[in-house]
Amino acid sequence: MKTQWPIYHVHRDGRKFAYEEYTVDHDERFTKGRKTLPDCEGGYPFPYTIEFASNVSPKLVEGDDLGDIIHNMMVFYDAEDMETLSELKERAKNGVEVYPGNFKYRFVLAAINLVTNEVASWCNEFGRGIFEYPLPKESLVDVAVLMATREGLGLPADVVTKVVKEMLNGMSYADAFEKSLPAVVAEGELEGLVREVLTEYPEKVADWKKLVAKEATTDSEEKTKEVQKRKTSIVNMMVGMVMRKKKGLDAREVVKTIEVELSRNPLAEST
């Protein structure tokens, strides 16, 4: 099955503009160095069609260009061909299971998840087409490689979202990756930071304890949900305070540590 990707913006008067070099955007957040197409003021409809190339087939074999794999997945998504994407995803999953050391299967699986999650979310948020995504093909390859190798590197899942966010703000992949790495936390350091916050906010600790006692005696589902909502609000506030003390902490670990320390805190035993 042949797939396609855009190579030219074609003006109605016949002029052609390389897709990799030109964009309909005027917003510098999205142009990423590409020149703006002429005669595009005033919004849609623009006087352009897109000319596609069609000589790449999706394959799960060594030698495929990684950028072409990304393009293929974008084409399938643009055509709303979820059946093909699902089939390729299953093939990639099976490949990972049978050949766990084969990078290409992991990359294809990462490419599909990248296009259908991160890229699609941006398109939905800004009302743009899949081929209007501002990051170039080379950057998408970098992100997909990170997704394919993240678990092996012991990195949390949210590092990918953080990297993409920084790159969309104009940061290079290398700088975005470095900035998004979780903080190095010494043994006992997180517990110490949490205890500092609990000491600084004894009234919140007392409020949390009262809510725990109230939750234990409440027989109404509606009231229980309200109590849980207030407890979560207190914990979230404390998460923010802890993460101000040290950048790059894993928020999920901070939440777990706060809940443990709240149950141990002497103030939490008082009424």
In short:
With 271 residues, the chain is mainly α.
Question: Keywords, please?
Answer:
single chain; 271 residues; mainly alpha; 3 domains; 3-stranded antiparallel β-sheet; two-stranded parallel ribbon; 11 helices; 5 strands; elongated
Write a structural description:
- Helix 6 crosses helix 7 and helix 10 (221-245) packs across helix 11 (251-264).
- It contains eleven helices and five strands; from the N terminus they run E-E-E-H-E-E-H-H-H-H-H-H-H-H-H-H.
- 59% of the residues lie in helices and 9% in strands.
- The protein is mainly alpha-helical and 271 residues long.
- The model is unreliable at 55-63 (pLDDT under 50).
- The strands form two sheets. Strands 2-1-5 form a three-stranded antiparallel β-sheet. It has a two-stranded parallel sheet with strand order 3-4.
- It folds into three domains: 1-56, no CATH class; 58-181, no CATH class; 189-269.
- The protein has helices at 28-31, 66-78, 82-98, 103-126, 137-153, 158-168, 173-180, 189-200, 202-217, 221-245, 251-264, and strands at 3-11, 16-18, 22-23, 35-36, 48-56.
- The longest helix is centred in the last third of the chain and has 25 residues, at 221-245.
- Strand 1 and strand 2 (16-18) form a beta hairpin.
